[in-house]
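Consider this one:
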Amino acid sequence: MRVKELLKFGIMELEQSGVVEASTDARLLLENCLGKSRTEVFLLAESEVDATRQEQYRQCIDRRQKREPVGYILGQCEFWSLQFYVTPDVLIPRPETEFLIDRALSLAKKNNLSSGNILDLCSGSGVIAVVLAKETGERVTAIDISASALRVAQLNGRRHGVLSGVDFIQGDLFSCLLQNKIFSLIVSNPPYVSRFDVDNSLEPEVARFEPRLALDGGERGLDLILKIRKILPSMLKPGGEIFIEIGADQGREVRRLFEKSVTGLPDFSLVEILIDYAGRDRVLHAMLVE
């Protein structure tokens, strides 16, 4: 088969299996199998593909037909215009999390971005920690309950040259930190999908392959967010800020949760829900009273 024929085969197979982004996925898989860029694949359209690479491509298409995400097949995906390692131990990074980071970098006070006391909570693949370390040049602490996820995060830290600038810690939320360790900025993408949706409503790519531990936020999807809220006043410095990615239907409830006092006095001088580019509630931004 020639390159263009192999690509056409891949697209047709994925379309017949109901894969929405059939053309894009077939092309990405072919580029990977051939070890070529998009432009090179286009220029080599009439070239013959050897039997070994044809079989490799067919196997990749078969995996995608079974709805395995492209990121897991390739072992990496693009995020923040960088390539990150991903495995089934971590969620595949999504555009919503790029929006989370963008808002944190844009809206956080300068002194909170330059304090060296930045926390990535529920770190997963480490994309938040790596991007924050690269963009701010400051030291970042990254916490996740999964040792397997942290191994992926460390690989990403090394890949992007920030391994020495990120402290990767395994633990359950803040429980692994010393009580006197407080932060100027916390950025978090916790599990926030309701248990019903995890069991019934997710796309096959997510439901069958991505780690439930990183998705399941309890009955209403708010279990982890509630735990974070309760302990925040003792973990943020006065004037410190937190940015949390949330579900599109959770904005009103999360805002009420943060506006309600835990200490008996107002805890936050600012509580707002940031709307993403699709017009959906996406990020909770709060600032502790100074």
